[in-house]
Design brief:
By secondary structure, the chain is α+β, with helices and mostly antiparallel strands. The protein has one domain. The chain is built from three helices and three strands, in the order αβαββα. It has a three-stranded antiparallel β-sheet with strand order 1-3-2, with helices on one face.
Length: 114
């Protein structure tokens, strides 16, 4: 089952990288294209260093987004990532995309019910 999730996540990342590449390329050739860069704090549900590193890598390899830093979690809070996004409609849209990516990744890294 996790193999299917891994294949699904790989396909998701290929699609996201292609979409991001198109956005960046169109912004380079069409300067009037709207850009609303922002930096947001994204509190993750990741627990292990592997999950944090995999999510940060996935965000960073997607054109138009970059993880600027990671704040370690405490007993009361989860780790947070500071993400720069070039093409943003609003904060909630960016967070929804990051949550979707994280949920797909956690299906690969965690056992069912974990």
């Amino acid at each position: 089952m996790r193999l299917l999730h891994a294949i699904s996540y790989l396909w998701f990342m290929i699609v996201e990288v292609n979409k991001g590449s198109y956005q960046v390329a169109s912004a380079a050739f069409l300067p009037q294209r709207r850009r609303d860069p922002m930096i947001i704090e994204f509190e993750t549900l990741c627990r292990s260093d592997l999950e944090i590193a995999a999510l940060a890598s996935s965000i960073t390899i997607t054109p138009g987004t970059l993880v600027l830093g990671i704040a370690a979690g405490t007993d009361d809070t989860n780790p947070s990532m500071f993400v720069h996004s070039i093409f943003s409609e609003d904060r909630d849209e960016v967070l929804a995309g990051l949550r979707d990516m994280e949920a797909r990744l956690l299906k690969v890294t965690r056992r069912k019910g974990a």
